[in-house]
Amino acid sequence: MRVQMENDMIRVRIDEDELSELLQDVALLGSTAFGTVFTMRYAVDATDAVVCGLSGNAHEWRMEVPRLALEDLQSRLPSKDGLVFDIPGYDTVATTVRFDVDVKDSLRRRRG
């Protein structure tokens, strides 16, 4: 799993094996160390909710992605078009979540 953050956007890119794990109710876990200052831990789960959700704090957060959207994405692979969700902020703009499956990984699987 690769997580990128920029401004008000979080991009999560996974491969097909990780997508299968999500759909089997296995959470994807990751972390990023910021030197010796702190470590950010994150988890991505499939959920039966209809919207994408974020919970936690800056050091440890969880993203819940709708299972139906993940199943739809899996049925369209390989595809450059992933999932896009907007999560409302307090008095700020929404946080956009882009959730993609690595297209190169998908194409390699189909050639092999």
What topology does this entry show?
Blueprint: E1 2-6, E2 9-14, H1 16-23, E3 28-34, E4 38-47, E5 53-56, E6 60-66, H2 67-75, E7 83-87, E8 95-101, H3 103-111
Parallel strand pairs: 2-8, 4-6
Antiparallel strand pairs: 1-2, 3-4, 5-6, 7-8
Low-pLDDT ranges: none
Q: Can you identify the CATH class?
A: Alpha Beta
Largest sheet: 4 strands, mixed
Total count of helical runs of at least 4 residues: 3
Strand content: over 45%
With strands numbered from the N-terminus, the spatial order across the biggest sheet is 1-2-8-7
- Shape by Cα distribution: globular
Structural class, judged by helices and strands?
A: alpha/beta
Query: Terminal Cα separation, in Å?
Result: 22 Å
What value does the Rg take, in angstroms?
A: 14 Å
| Portion of residues within helices | 10-25%
Question: What do these coordinates show?
Answer:
A hairpin with a 7-residue loop joins β7 and β8 (about 95-100). The chain has helices at about 15-25, 65-75, 105-110; strands at about 1-5, 10-15, 30-35, 40-45, 55, 60-65, 85, 95-100. The protein is about 25% helix and about 45% strand. It has one domain (about 1-110): Gyrase A, domain 2. The protein has 3 helices and 8 strands, in the order ββαββββαββα. It is α/β, with parallel strands linked by helices. The strands form 2 sheets. The protein has a 4-stranded mixed β-sheet. The chain has a 4-stranded mixed β-sheet with strand order 3-4-6-5. α1 (about 15-25) packs antiparallel against α2. The radius of gyration is 14 Å and the shape is globular. The model has no long low-confidence stretch (mean pLDDT about 90).
